[in-house]
Specification:
The chain has 195 residues and is of the alpha/beta class. The chain has one domain. The protein contains five helices and seven strands; from the N terminus they run E-E-H-E-H-E-E-H-E-H-E-H. The strands form two sheets. The chain has a five-stranded mixed sheet with strand order 3-4-5-6-7, with helices on both faces. A two-stranded antiparallel ribbon has the order 1-2. Helix 3 packs parallel to helix 4. The termini are far apart.
Length: 195
């Protein structure tokens, strides 16, 4: 250890037991679907201290909406603008309402779907709790199917993130990569083409 301005700093480190050298380069950045929306163009990989809106937040919801539209599935994509309408019409009491409600040609609620993205395990664990509330609501409504579409590396933690979601959704859990497979799961074969 060497002293500099009264502060100790390590100038040499011994390699770990497995013989691998310590990393000397900064961590790699992973590409994202984010695009720069400012008036000025930043260099690729540049960071801005000012948060800016990006299309990244709705990637999962947009994929589900495109799938439902392409297959003629009647649905409502919920948001702050229609929470009260969904609650009144379908008697959904959980607040906020699920991201999507699917209904049939008689306006009967047929499924609830929630989309969640999480890039770390802690966030995924916190978001997994929401599926417990939605599961209780689906049971209260007579066993309406609850489905999940998940995205991000946070869901790779199985025991405390993915496991509870799979349990609460009775196995009806999808990702953007396999979201089209959702059309073979109840209630979608029965409501396809009704929109």
């Amino acid at each position: 250890m060497r002293q500099r301005d009264g502060v100790s700093s390590k100038t040499s480190q011994t390699p770990p037991r497995n013989g691998r050298p310590f990393a000397t380069s900064p961590p790699m950045a992973f590409p994202t679907a984010c695009t720069c929306t400012s008036a000025t163009t930043a260099a690729p990989g540049a960071r801005s201290s000012t948060p800016r809106p990006s299309p990244r937040g709705d990637v999962i919801e947009d994929a589900v909406e495109a799938l439902f539209t392409a297959n003629g599935v009647p649905f409502i994509r919920t948001g702050s603008h229609n929470q009260a309408e969904v609650a009144a019409h379908f008697e959904v009491r959980v607040n906020p309402a699920p991201d999507f409600v699917v209904f049939d040609d008689t306006d009967t609620l047929r499924a609830m779907l929630e989309c969640k993205g999480a890039n770390d395990g802690g966030t995924a664990r916190d978001k997994a709790l929401r599926f417990g509330l939605l599961h209780n609501e689906s049971v209260r409504l007579g066993g309406i199917p609850l489905l999940a579409v998940l995205g991000g590396l946070g869901w790779t933690r199985v025991n405390d993130t993915l496991g509870p979601v799979v349990r609460d959704c009775d196995g009806r859990v999808f990702s953007v990569a396999n979201v089209d497979e959702m059309m073979s799961v109840s209630p979608f074969p029965a409501v396809k083409g009704m929109a």
